[in-house]
């Protein structure tokens, strides 16, 4: 009888095959999936963030067909990641991790719904999946909203109007319906503001837009909602960041939807894939979270900026066309290709006896999807929070299907195995279907695997032709900004780190400088991190050592205005205030400086230049080895300045303060 029972188990199991002769017997356990007594929480989808900030900056510069291929891998149903949700930054003109994103209202009397690239990205996502949910969330705000204070809640009616105008503009100019809106990323919330935001949304006919709060921690928002019935009534989703798969009692007591509204943020190798696989399941199993949203969507920013390659895939070389479909894309597919928002989780404890987890979801129409992960501790560490120790061992799981699932006869099987020993991972492979015998099937599970078992037959692992090989940034690069109707507001490959640099038409110019690049933020924004006091945009190859930068410059601010060009720039993102390099400054008062820092305090050389405001001048910075020199209008202004650190870095341009200034005929060699 024991032999027969063993043959039956093996006959309806799938996985790596029978254990080797002499191997220890597998741990065995049974799990029941039953909808007879009702269902669990409603599933709200898996998504990713573009923004917070400028994480998709280089994506827009890709040529076709590569750009569309990347977008297909992210958004196209049954193709790759097949994302259910796209969350974007509502640009606030300030540094928000890897750069600044432009606001739709730089100034109080200014509205422009074509700045930046998030509008374009949302449209591309909707084009591929009309059902995708859209979320907007501000990280920062233009300075005028705070009337000089670094705080968006002193004038909550102005802040609410500003956010609602973005939602209205999305519809009016791009036919985009925003589904959810947040408050202020990872910063304080104001109950008064949230209530006023709901009122303003309703007043403008946006009753369907739901509010997520507070995109930080479970507390204090959950506790405040329990004590403030009006606030409880206007918040639809409690969103926490990096919750470590856990929630808190007060959040559960609100009876609201609970989301991990930002998570992952991990280098996108196989360990990152293991992190993502684990939290996609365990955020629900441990924390009742019905949506998990990855920061970030695609690593499309210079890799040496903070959190390089912390996207679901990598696309950071528009000049070559090279991109890489990383393993987290296929881990995502295990859930997204076989579920939809509106499905429901089954009521079951999803912890596996041998370690790991499973979730089961249904559409309520007889379809069933089970996702299993057996990620080991060291192979599934996320960037945060600290992961407590646990163990995972090979095991045999037997599932009993009851209720409306009892009659299921076969399940489609998709499998991934992350191979950390030889680097030979298998990702999202379709295996033979598993036969279900009298409502029962068994599965042999190894460590670091993901399985999807589903009644759906729609899964696909699509592929595009191999993209071009990687290439460094061109060693000789020019941009004259001569474009009358640019597809985007920013020039290709420039990555703004403080301030916003936009294409500009200089209507009063006699002809040489009609089309320029202009820095347009003239008041310090309500910041998310500590932006620099100067504005700066970086470009190029971080490994550059010997470099010549030439650019025409135009100071608009009289008396104390100033601009710079720079080389060997070593920092950006949230660390922009600490930036070092070789900076060649000229000022409206007719002086110049050479400094080794963006702050302008470490002076290497200074003197008179004769430069004045409201006139064009050409600056040239040459750095060779330990020596730097500078030219003004083609003539030497200073030379033989010794530079020791940093040894390498990007090229850059920028301004002395938040001031208007223009740049033209940029050339780096």
From TrEMBL:
Active site (UniProt): 186 (proton donor/acceptor), 262 (nucleophile)
EC number assigned by the record: 3.2.1.46
Occurrences of domain Glycosyl hydrolase family 59 catalytic (ranges): 43-337
Signal peptide: 1-23
A Gene Ontology biological process term: galactosylceramide catabolic process
Gene3D superfamilies registered for this protein in UniProt: Aldolase class I, Exo-inulinase, domain 1, Glycosidases
Reactions catalysed: a D-galactosylceramide + H2O = an N-acyl-sphingoid base + D-galactose; beta-D-galactosyl-(1<->1)-sphing-4-enine + H2O = sphing-4-enine + D-galactose
Family the entry assigns: Belongs to the glycosyl hydrolase 59 family.
Name of protein: Galactocerebrosidase
């Amino acid at each position: 009888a024991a032999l027969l029972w063993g043959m039956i188990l093996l006959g309806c199991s799938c996985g790596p095959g029978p254990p080797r002769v002499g191997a220890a017997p597998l741990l065995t356990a049974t799990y029941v999936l039953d909808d007879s007594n009702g269902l669990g929480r409603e599933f709200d989808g898996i998504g990713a963030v573009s923004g917070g900030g400028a994480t998709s900056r280089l994506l827009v510069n890709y040529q076709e067909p590569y750009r569309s291929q990347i977008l297909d891998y992210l958004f196209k149903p049954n193709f790759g990641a097949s994302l259910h949700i796209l969350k974007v930054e509502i640009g606030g003109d300030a540094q928000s991790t890897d750069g600044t994103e432009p606001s739709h209202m730089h100034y109080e009397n200014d509205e422009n719904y074509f700045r930046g690239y998030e509008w374009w990205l949302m449209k591309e996502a909707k084009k591929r999946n009309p059902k995708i949910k859209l979320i907007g969330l501000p990280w920062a705000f233009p300075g005028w909203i705070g009337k000089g204070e670094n705080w968006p809640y002193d004038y909550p009616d102005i802040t609410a109007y500003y956010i609602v105008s973005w939602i209205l503009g999305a519809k009016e100019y791009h036919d985009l319906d925003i589904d959810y809106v947040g408050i202020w990323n990872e910063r304080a919330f104001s109950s008064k503001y949230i209530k006023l935001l709901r009122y303003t949304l309703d007043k403008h006919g946006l009753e369907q837009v739901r509010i997520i709060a507070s995109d930080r921690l479970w507390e204090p928002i959950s506790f405040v909602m329990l004590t403030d019935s009006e606030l409880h009534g206007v918040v639809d989703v409690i969103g926490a960041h990096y919750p470590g798969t856990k929630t808190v009692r007060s959040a559960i007591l609100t009876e609201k939807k609970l989301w991990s509204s930002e998570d992952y943020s991990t280098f996108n190798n196989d360990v990152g894939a293991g992190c993502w696989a684990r939290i996609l399941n365990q955020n629900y199993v441990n924390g009742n979270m019905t949506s998990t949203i990855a920061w970030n969507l695609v690593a499309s920013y210079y890799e040496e900026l903070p959190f390089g390659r912390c996207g679901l895939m990598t696309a950071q070389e528009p000049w070559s066309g090279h991109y890489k479909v990383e393993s987290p894309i296929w881990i995502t597919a295990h859930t997204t290709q076989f579920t939809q928002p509106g499905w429901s989780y089954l009521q079951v404890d999803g912890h596996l006896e041998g370690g790991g987890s499973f979730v089961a979801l249904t559409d309520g129409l007889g379809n069933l999807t089970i996702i299993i992960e057996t990620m080991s501790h060291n192979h599934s560490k996320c960037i945060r929070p600290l992961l407590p120790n646990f163990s995972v061992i090979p095991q045999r799981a037997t599932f009993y299907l009851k209720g409306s699932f009892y009659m299921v006869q076969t399940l489609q099987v998709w499998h991934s195995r992350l191979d950390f020993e030889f680097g030979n991972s298998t990702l999202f492979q379709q295996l033979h279907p598993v036969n279900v015998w009298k409502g029962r099937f068994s599965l042999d599970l190894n460590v670091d695997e993901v399985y999807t078992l589903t009644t759906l037959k729609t899964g696909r692992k699509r592929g595009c032709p191999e993209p071009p090989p990687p290439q460094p940034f061109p060693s000789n690069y020019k941009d004259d900004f001569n474009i009358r109707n640019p597809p985007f507001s920013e020039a290709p490959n420039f990555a703004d780190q403080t301030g916003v640099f936009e294409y500009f038409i200089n209507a009063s110019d006699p002809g040489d400088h009609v089309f320029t690049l202009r820095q347009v933020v003239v008041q310090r924004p309500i910041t998310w991190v500590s932006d620099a006091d100067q504005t700066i945009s970086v470009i190029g190859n971080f490994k550059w050592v010997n470099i010549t930068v030439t650019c025409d410059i135009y100071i608009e601010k009289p008396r104390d205005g100033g601009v710079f060009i720079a080389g060997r720039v070593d920092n950006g993102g949230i660390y922009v205030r600490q930036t070092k390099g070789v900076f060649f400054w000229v000022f409206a008062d007719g002086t110049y400086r050479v400094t080794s820092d963006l702050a302008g305090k470490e002076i290497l050389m200074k003197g008179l230049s004769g430069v004045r405001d409201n006139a064009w001048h050409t600056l040239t910075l040459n750095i060779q080895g330990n020596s730097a020199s500078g030219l003004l209008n083609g003539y030497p202004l200073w030379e033989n300045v010794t530079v020791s650190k940093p040894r390498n870095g990007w090229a850059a341009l920028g301004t002395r303060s938040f001031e208007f200034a223009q740049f033209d005929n940029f050339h780096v060699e």
